[in-house]
Specification:
Elements lengths: L6 E9 L8 E6 L7 H11 L3 E6 L8 E6 L4 E2 L3 H13 L9 E6 L2 E6 L6 E3 L4 E3 L3 H10 L7 E8 L3 E7 L2 H5 L13 E7 L7 E7 L6 E2 L3 H13 L7 E5 L7 E7 L9 E4 L2 E10 L1
Parallel strand pairs: 2-3, 4-6, 11-12, 13-15
Antiparallel strand pairs: 1-2, 1-18, 3-4, 4-5, 6-7, 7-8, 8-17, 9-10, 10-11, 12-13, 13-14, 15-16, 16-17
């Protein structure tokens, strides 16, 4: 039998933007102890946000805490904006990591480190498996998203917990010109699009279309950007820090900082950083 409802510390925040409400919303239950899977899923469905997290006592002695990450329809082993948002809320609640300047989060993909020493918190991107995408899948995605095949410059299947079918286009304008109301996301796939900007502080534009998370377009996607960072690194294209814009076409001002390891940019860890705004603090009864 599930435990009786009780008040639990709660925050709601906005991740990957310096503009409040310009990023991706996240609900954080700071004490998920004793909640059943069904209770967590039901509450995540009720918040109707892209993700809701539940902080639990660490089951790995090296971790500062465990988190469970839920969309409105299922649990995820890892996600980027819930990682950064939860870390910021956990610190704001008065907690401190075991090691100064570094949070170790335990989740479905194991331990994920969040570096607190930079201008913005940044998680160490988990390993990414990179595989070729078959031609039939490329054609299916291009047709569904109204992509011009002649302007596709690269493609791959990336897996860092979630699986991403990613396509690179020639120009950021190729992504900005896509009308989400006129596309048909491929059922069961999470599709990430990336394309370079020609000038300015933002190096790449990214969009993510998916049906498996109960949404059509995600405002800002940390785990996708983490996978893309490893893909870029594998091609020797991530030797310097760069900035990604996401959410532009749906009224968001998402900014993702991608930071390669300064000592070994071609093979070292990739950090994915971003700002978090805490918008709501209080308690929730679950």
């Amino acid at each position: 039998m599930p435990p009786s409802p009780q008040k639990r510390p709660f925050m709601q925040c906005d991740v990957f933007s310096t503009t409040p409400t310009g990023g991706n919303g996240l609900a954080v239950v700071l004490d998920g102890s004793g909640l059943t899977d069904d209770q967590m899923q039901a509450f995540a469905q009720w918040t109707n946000l892209a993700e809701t997290t539940f902080v639990c006592p660490p089951t790995d002695p090296a971790a500062d805490y465990d988190i469970r990450i839920f969309t409105v329809s299922r649990e995820l082993p890892f996600a980027g904006h819930p990682t950064l948002g939860t870390a910021t809320c956990w610190l704001a609640a008065g907690n401190a990591p075991k090691e100064t300047g570094l949070i170790r989060q335990n989740c479905g993909v194991g331990l994920v480190e969040i570096d607190l020493t930079g201008a913005t918190p940044a998680f160490i991107a988990p390993p990414t498996e990179i595989a070729a995408m078959d031609g039939a899948k490329i054609d299916q995605i291009a047709k569904g998203l109204n992509l011009d095949p002649a302007r596709i410059t690269g493609h791959a299947v990336l897996n860092n917990g979630p699986e991403w079918h990613v396509i690179e286009m020639q120009s950021a304008q190729d992504l900005l010109d896509l009308n989400a109301a006129e596309i048909t996301p491929v059922s069961g796939l999470a599709v990430g699009l990336i394309a370079p900007h020609s000038a300015g502080p933002v190096a790449y534009e990214v969009r993510m279309f998916s049906m498996w998370a109960g949404l059509t377009e995600d405002p800002i996607t940390g785990s996708l950007n983490a996978a893309l960072a490893h893909w870029m690194q594998s091609m020797g294209r991530a030797t310097q820090p760069y900035l990604v814009a996401q959410g532009t076409c749906i009224g968001r001002h998402g900014r993702v900082h991608v930071i390669p390891d300064s000592a070994d940019p071609n093979n070292g860890p990739m950090r994915i950083g971003g700002h978090t705004n805490i918008l709501i603090e209080g308690t929730v009864t679950i």
